[in-house]
Design goal:
Elements lengths: L1 H38 L7 H22 L15 H36 L11 H31 L3 H8 L4 H4 L2
Length: 182
């Protein structure tokens, strides 16, 4: 079950990564168009604001993908000097702390969205963007990351309980320099 859960999350996160990659590509095209139009003496306006919104959204959604690809930074100076069980326990501890932290962040994001919805808040910019329009996908990305982190922790926990330390390391370990060279 743990392996199937991890495989499903990886598949879903690859789709998420493709979508946010497409969004970043569209944003880059928009910025390039702005550069060209400025050379012609005009402007589309709002490229800095829109690109900031895009970065906030893609960052929150991309964190789950980065987690499953073992791309989050972790200082593992002690971890590399211990046996497989101890490494797995370090990994579980790291995943537990990450899961708790991200879940708290996701919960703390909701009042921001709720306030914007209640007040009909708009950006204090020429575009006057309705903030909920940006904050809802941003919040959803943090919730997605929290779900991915919690499910990954649970899958790793099950693997460690079954004594499948190499599978656990592949799921929740680190992508260290020794692996990069292989």
């Amino acid at each position: 079950m743990a392996q199937r859960t991890l495989a499903l999350m990886k598949r879903l996160n690859r789709w998420v990564a493709m979508l946010i990659g497409a969004l970043l590509l569209l944003c880059a095209v928009f910025i390039l168009a702005e550069i060209v139009i400025r050379q012609l003496g005009s402007s589309l306006g709002g490229t800095d604001e829109i690109s900031g919104y895009v970065m906030a959204i893609v960052t929150s959604w991309g964190m789950g993908f980065a987690l499953l690809e073992l791309s989050h930074v972790r200082i593992d100076i002690i971890r590399g000097r211990v046996n497989a069980l101890a490494r797995s326990l370090f990994d579980l501890f790291s995943m537990a702390i990450l899961s708790i932290t991200i879940t708290i962040i996701a919960f703390r994001c909701w009042p921001v969205v709720e306030r914007s919805l209640a007040n009909g808040s708009r950006a204090n910019t020429p575009l006057e963007t309705p903030l909920a329009l940006v904050q809802i996908p941003w919040f959803a990305g943090w919730v997605w990351f929290a779900c991915v982190a919690l499910l990954t922790f649970l899958a790793g926990f099950l693997l460690v309980l079954r004594g499948e330390y190499s599978e656990s390391e592949a799921a929740i370990g680190t992508f260290g320099e020794e692996k990069a060279g292989q």
